[in-house]
TrEMBL record:
Keywords assigned by UniProt, alphabetized: Aminopeptidase, Cytoplasm, Hydrolase, Manganese, Metal-binding, Protease
Cytosol aminopeptidase domain segment(s): 333-340
Cytoplasm listed as a keyword: yes
Reaction catalysed by this enzyme: Release of an N-terminal amino acid, preferentially leucine, but not glutamic or aspartic acids; Release of an N-terminal amino acid, Xaa-|-Yaa-, in which Xaa is preferably Leu, but may be other amino acids including Pro although not Arg or Lys, and Yaa may be Pro. Amino acid amides and methyl esters are also readily hydrolyzed, but rates on arylamides are exceedingly low
Name used for this protein in its record: Probable cytosol aminopeptidase
Cofactor annotation remark: Binds 2 manganese ions per subunit.
Active site positions, chain numbering: 265, 339
InterPro entries: Leucine_aapep/pepB (IPR011356), Macro_dom-like (IPR043472), Peptidase_M17_C (IPR000819), Peptidase_M17_leu_NH2_pept (IPR023042)
Example GO biological process: proteolysis
Free-text function comment from the UniProt entry: Presumably involved in the processing and regular turnover of intracellular proteins. Catalyzes the removal of unsubstituted N-terminal amino acids from various peptides.
Residues that coordinate or bind Mn(2+) 1: 258, 335, 337
Amino acid sequence: MTTPAEIKFKDVDLEAIASAAGKVVVFVGEDGKLDAGARKVNTLTRKALARFVESAAFEKMAAGDAAPLGYPVGMAAVAVVVVKLGRKPSCADARKAGAQLAKIQNGDDLLILAGTIARAEEISLGLALRGYTFETHKTAPAKTAGTVTFMVSKPEAVAKAAAPLAAVAEGVFFTRDLTNEPANVLTTDDFAARLAAMQELGLEVEILEEDVLAKLGMRTLLSVGQGSDSPTKVVVMSWNGGGKEAPFALVGKGVVFDTGGISLKQPGGMEEMTMDMGGAGVVAGVMRTLALRKAKANVVGLVGLVENMPSGNATRPGDVVKSMKGDTIEIINTDAEGRLVLADVLWYTQERFKPVGMINLATLTGAIMVALGHENAGMFSNSDGLSTSIAKAAAAEGEGVWRMPLGAGYDAELKSRIADMKNVGGRMGGAVIAAQFLQRFVKPDVPWAHLDIAGTASVKKETALAPAGATGWGVMALNRLIADNYEKG
Ligand code: BES
Ligand code: MN
Ligand code: ZN
């Protein structure tokens, strides 16, 4: 598992700056005023820092930008890194500054002279998140990670504020690792084993195998996996930190690889379908974060783990299967498999847990990427209250989400001649029709939202807080949603 950098918070010791190896970081606001740490660096470097701060280059920097000054005279460090950041930065600017430092660190030790700056813990989160690399399958030894030390005026207070954010970073890393992992490694067995290992953190983890799923009547879920040699599983993770109340539920699509099945996908880009378990990955990452920070909430996380393969035993287009709910589905296209996975897991979740609310996450449709690109996940909901809370939490965490419509006209597309419904409608509005399909398996009195993360789970270009590849989109938003709305005291 990839683990975030360990970050230490120490008392300010101005005398230790001259001999510090690696890179020494100072913060200077728009006003160009130097704090005690920066003044010390300025003196040691015979006013090189002040010259930089008065330059046009500093003037042009935006909040959160960082500039390294190499081989400073009078110091042992290989660079002084100047970060443009005021004394009271916004959360987004603080994280951005941390992310810039992660990119500049390049294996060296960092000594960060944060002094009395507000939101030092958010700087540390940005640093941890942008420091992620997925190197499990590189044989060349990775550069040793440098150490990270913040010098702050109140180290205990900052360390206390940073602890729950370190739990967030670890959850996000867990999601990214799962989502980046190739499908020959992250099989359904391997995925379930990684989730079971979280019992060490105090999570309850239960694995439902195929015989149990068959007895429960989860035929639509099982129909997706029947062409694969890997067994289909449902994993139930429970975090009981909140007393006796009914839990909030998270449900994830965990298709470890999506070939499309008999409705086989085009070969170009098919390798990307290793991320088709991204929804399950986010559920796992949130559960990990809740356990690590000992959240005072009851949350269940359920994932349907399955591989969509063509074979002599695979589901055919035209097959009719019965869902756990009892409705029959004509499977027109075996590549519209995510909704079949979720239909049964959503129903099971409601029957077993009677949740106070339910969110499912899925890399469900290419159509949502056509609509929203990689900037926003699509949100579909039967509840204005829940969708507003999700949008607020996502905005606070800088994770894009955009509400999309639902309606009877879209639902009508799912009419089947021979069964209760079919699994696809027309091509137009494909992401909405997929959401309508899911809603048929949601009880009307359960506040529910479906997040289509096909465009945000994994991206080709780096983002503010992640390198190219899996982003972990949603872990921060959902962790905050739970903290702000479902947690006691
Ligand atoms: N896993 C795909 C959706 C997807 C596409 C995710 C690209 C990430 C990137 C999903 O199972 C799928 O194949 N959806 C089809 C549905 C269609 C057959 C109605 C699609 O979007 O083309
Ligand atoms: Mn598919
Ligand atoms: Zn899929």
